[in-house]
Predict the 3D structure of the following.
Amino acid sequence: MKPPRFQYCAPRLLDEALTLLDQHGEDIKVLAGGQSFVPLLNMRLAGPAYIVDINHISELHYIETEDGYLAIGAIARQRQIERSVLVQEKHPLLVEVIKHIGHMQIRNRGTVVGSIAHADPAAELPALLTCLNGEVLAQSIHGERVIKAEQFFTGYLTTALEPGEMLTEVRFPWILPQAGWSFMEFARRAGDYALVGAAAVLTPAPDDTCMSAHIAYLGVAGSPIRAHAVEQMLVGTTLDQRALDAAAEAAREIVSEDMSDVHATVEYRRTLTAELTKRVLKAAWGRRERQERQEQQRGEG
Amino acid sequence: MLERDDDFSQCVEECEIAVIVNGHRYERTVPVRLLLSDFLRHDLQLTGTHVGCEHGVCGCCTVLFNGEAVRSCLMFAVQADSMAVTTIEGTNSDLHPIQQAFQEKHGLQCGFCTPGIIMSVHAMLHEHPDPTEQEIRHELSGNICRCTGYQNIVEAVKLAAERLREQHMEVE
């Protein structure tokens, strides 16, 4: 058998799972979709003494619209969100990002929350959550806490979760209706982890300059990175060629020195990051709703 | 989803499971670390499900789990307790129209990846009965074939889609 020995349990109630997590501390791991965790077990890179399978905890199976954000429970599958008419209508960027994850066979099992908890710096969802300044909900038998994305991802496959805590919900903030968004990535083969990817959300001001900019990257460092410096450069501009070129140049700096591996050198990743920055910003800006047009429509209405 | 009747709230290393595979109910005692792919092949002798990379990349071990295409090497047999699994052996006693189309269009060479591809195509055509060539290529990206270069596989899927649509219309 490929995976190492472990003790398994699959409770139906969240409280039971949290109790087990509290009892076993660092010796226990949570199994949700298993699309990243089971490969780690099969390759024996992970070998916890206990595994708690949360797939039967129906109270964690939800997609809910809340004031300010879309809440996704720990066992909602990526495919379910991709197919959800509600999410397609209310959070199209999330659907667009999910379509880039692996293959349909992976998304059929893989969960949104699991991808966030796994915190792979080359994964799509951690980068999106960082871009949107989203939050996660961590629960333990002692209580719960809400953590901002940028504080949650602390390094390569590492998060701010403490032993005994479980990630039960991820919150993707709504995007304003007038804002434009885009997600792009560069992968060598369809469905592979991308070398570099970028998510951007741009909100126009009434004079059609950029009022606020959010841009975050995957594959450029040990965790997903939001480029605050690039964002500040874009505010007040009209996203003309000069602004795009300056943003692309600044974005090269985001790529960490140690991001050189068998797949790509640092220099190549910087080139990709610069090019993706231009493309993703251009696409996002093109998708914005111009204020004049809104007013016109209102006038006509 | 079927209702699970066993209680797994206690930590165990081995347990009894009952899985519905291709319409038959199988009861077995398995170690919890047994992968679903190995359960199908070793415990049930359903060796049509192939095992390639064993970490979710190649797609050879694709089966239908409650109707959805999944990697059986990324699930444990215990997770299939009280669930329905369909493998290549369960598609039909004769050749299924998808298999027939693969034979006619020569959509395989060595055949190792074929069971996984057939199961993925099942799921694909169930959801999109009339896919475009681009959609077919996109959906096939989760199954690696090292022989064919995919040309004939794409042709076979197109033919299978056409025949299944015709069949469906006749039934109606």
Summary: The interface with chain A takes residues 4, 8-13, 15, 31-35, 38, 54-56, 59, 62, 65, 68-71, 73-76, 78-79, 120, 123-124, 138-139, 141-142 of chain B (CB under 8 Å). Residues 80 and 88 of chain B are 17 Å apart (CA to CA). Residues 151-171 of chain B form the longest helix (21 residues). The helical segments of chain B are 36-43, 97-104, 114-127, 133-140, 151-171.
